[in-house]
């Protein structure tokens, strides 16, 4: 019975997160990832999610994907608000190559952190309105992550969702344009241990 109760708690927690992740991620980001600053109800939800994700790891290296809007770039050090405004002025949906090249220069080899949890997908998707950035994350073998593509665990079954732990940090390897210049592709690698990035520049608390 105890095992059943624990499973039910985790199921409810995953489902509630998938239905409205902002209720958990919002407070986590505002608190800089410090759960001691959260109210007791959210703390308990965070602990249940932490416990579940920690029990699952990737059996091999795999790429996951996340579509982002341009506001994601507002937290990037070295890319000004003027740069962002210019980037938004597309030419029939095509982005300025020089600005994307600048993005690559300022983001390459830097480490970024998401204080909340990160919902990603196993399948690369086409750019959608308002979300022209595709973040491609390589998860090394043994990365902690939860596969939640189950009707019991998610409110949006069929998305092949991979949920990454809160506080996930990743190093950007490149920023490129798609062949049609209508999508910005950021390729990065997740770090399993802080020892990996001691010699890299860090740009903390990215928002997405």
UniProtKB/TrEMBL annotation:
GO molecular function, one term: transferase activity
Classification via InterPro entries: ADP-ribosyltransferase (IPR003540)
PROSITE patterns (UniProt xref): TR_MART
UniProt KW Methyltransferase keyword: no
Keywords: Plasmid, Transferase
One cellular component (GO) term of this entry: extracellular region
Residue ranges of every copy of the ADP ribosyltransferase domain listed in the record: 14-192
Protein name: EDIN A-like ADP-ribosyltransferase ART608B
